[in-house]
Amino acid sequence: MNEEKLAALGLDAGSTTCKIVGVNQSGGMIWHLLEPADPRVEDQVAHMLEEAKKRFGSLEGIPLVATGYGRKLVKNATRNLTEITCHARGVYHELQKPGTLVDIGGQDSKVIIIGKEGRVIDFVMNDKCAAGTGRFLENTAGRLRVPLEVLGSTALSVNQEERISSTCTVFAESEIISMLAHGVAVEPILRGLHRSLITRIVAMIRSVGLVPPLMLSGGVARNKAMRKMLEEETGEKVHLPSYPQLMGAYGAALIGLEKK
User: Fold this and answer.
1) Does the first or last residue of the chain, that is N or C, have fewer Cβ atoms within 10 Å of its Cβ?
2) What distance in Å separates the CA atoms of residue 20 and residue 178, rounded to the nearest whole number?
3) pLDDT tens digits for 142-178?
4) Closest among 138, 140, 190 to 162, alpha carbons compared
5) Are 137 and 149 contacting, i.e. CB atoms less than 8 angstroms apart?
6) Which top CATH class is 8-96+245-259?
């Protein structure tokens, strides 16, 4: 079997990033592309599919399954599915474990109970308020002028933390500005900010019940402080897939492969 031969594509049109993954007949990830999300979803999809053609040649007969915030704008998709279904399938296929998956995205956060073969048993979702999402961290990082890639390590560089009491992103930002004006250092503010987000996530986990192992996907999974605090608050080791940000697109591709 040619392990580099494309068998299916999955595209995750997220609110923050857009991802496309190619898999072979065995379900192995053989190609991927990740870009910041473009407001013109159709144009970005066309560009990504063009890149796939450059890599593999003709895409005729290759199923394309779309997921994510902009999935219904992927006009040439074979089918479109929710991120919940796709993340569950992608993470299960890689880690080969049922359990509890936390997916923290740019626009929403989800806690998914995964059963055998990657089936979704139960889930809870926060899509009403940015305070429980990656956008909460991203906005504050911009305000504090701390690069996203060092946000977690900066938060973990101190032991003390400032409590962020507001449950709204706008009010939390005002609270942080007030702290800075009163001479509070950036590091404990950041640590408190991470704790605030983790508290919301753990409340979601408890609402559906934690079934070990505890797994994490989405771009926020790269944040060291989020992983460490999640382990502290739950008492469970956090398991990560190789490419946390790609799990939605990967799961979509795997489903396309099954239907093919």
Assistant:
1) N
2) 41
3) 888 899 889 999 999 999 999 987 666 677 788 888 9
4) 190
5) no
6) alpha beta
